[in-house]
Amino acid sequence: MNPTHLFSIATGSSEPIYRQLVDQTRRLIAGGQLAPGDPMPSVREIAGALAINPMTVSKAYGMLEMEGVLTRRRGLGMEVAQAPPRGHSVAHRVALLRPTLERAALEAGQLELDAATVLELFSTILKAKQ
Q: Which residues of the chain have pLDDT under 50?
């Protein structure tokens, strides 16, 4: 599993990198791209692929383990927990997406873009990713 296909880090973001990793992992699980029992890339793999400090990845994994999202397999690394602590309901997935959309809305306002332009762009991006 290539970490660059799983994670995308915004280095210029005000959100800490470890938090970006945590949130993206939650979204990947909630969206079904990562299933219970799936192995996670090693700390070294993620750090190398994304050119970030291994301690940052370790901090994100530690937080996810404490929340019960990931479990540690002795000698094998981390995997997605068998029983995720939260469901995959639409409401839960919407709640995970909301902070990203709030940041995008703030940036659109700062750029003085009208809602119709932003929604059209978002629609185009969604269609391209499907």
A: none
